[in-house]
Design brief:
Blueprint lengths: L3 E4 L3 E2 L2 H16 L3 E6 L1 E2 L10 E3 L3 H7 L8 H17 L8 E5 L4 H9 L3 E5 L5 H15 L8 H13 L2 E4 L2 H9 L7 E3 L19 E5 L8 H11 L5 E5 L5 H10 L5 E4 L4 H6 L2 E4 L8 H8 L4 E4 L14 E4 L4 H13 L1 H16 L6 H16 L1
Amino acid sequence: MTHAAVVFNGILGGGGLGWGMAQVAGAFARAGMLRRVLCGGIDGGIGLGPLPLTRVSTTALVGTLFRTPLRSRDDLIRTLSDASFDLLASRRLPADADLVYVCSWAALRTIRAARARGARSVLWCPTPHIEESIRIAREEGARFGTKTRYATDWMRRRVLQEYAEADWIRVDSRYVLETMVRRGVPREKLLLVAPGVDASRFYPGQGDGVFRVCLVGQLSLLKGYPYLVRAFEALGVPAGELMLFGPLVDRFNRRMVERYLVNPRIRHGYGDPVPVYQRASVFVLPSVADGFGFAVLEAMACGLPVIISESTGAKDCVRDGEEGFVVPDRDVEAIRVRLLELYRDPALARRMGRAARRRAEGLDVGRVGPELLRALTQAREAAR
């Protein structure tokens, strides 16, 4: 039987990445394969029960760095955090693990340590190929007047080496797969397994009659939220509201959102997204580079029609005109038109919302583990 270790620089179950890692850890545990989770901690609210945990945390390091002149260099702080975690985790892998599942950016030493022990590695890449992400981040920065860095050059080289040295690379969507192949990653290394959603936690609410648009997720330029703000402001719906719900990743984005909040119909929040979904009328995620977008499935499970961009990986799960709409990247007018359509036709919005809920129920989190294990089995057989 395979003995697996799951390695993640963060809280298992915390945020989108933490939830994605929790899906795999839970699947390995149910299959009797999980030997150890190496991470900063486990969110008790995710319902996985006790898991074998080795705590590896860089919280103290990050806190110290934020008290230095480096606090304005989010990219450098992330690099130091990921590299430090990777070093510590690589030294604490369980001796009997023959499969290591690790998240990209904090994985190179761990992959090498696993190989030295005769173990295989699966690298989860939840974002597009790093070269594509850097390119798009630079384009967005130029559009909005910031030189905020997506990644240090040292981290870029490390991630490219992760791609080269991992035995397999798990991707969440065809969008990410295409960026990988386009940048030269061998197709046979790629395992396409979409995430799932907990449809028992995310379920429809009653709403309150207000036409409320929501975006849930980390508020960075790659999420495309400025395009949604422009579309909403051009919409002209009486008493409509826009909720931008999620952490602000750096000072530039904090300043941007603060300017938007001058409009009393635009709000910002952070915390449990379930009440936000349940009070909303429509969910919009106009990302310009998003490997999947867990919030899309969450919103669908809550019975919301969704509007997403072409560069949102979750478009694999959304049929244009059925569960919502897929619009071109950066197209403010297309977003505005679709929002207006849903506002003027509540019956259409309800029909799409019901279809979205049905679609989400068929993408339950319980299917992720078996699909990943099948993909691994097929990859191993193909490599023989």
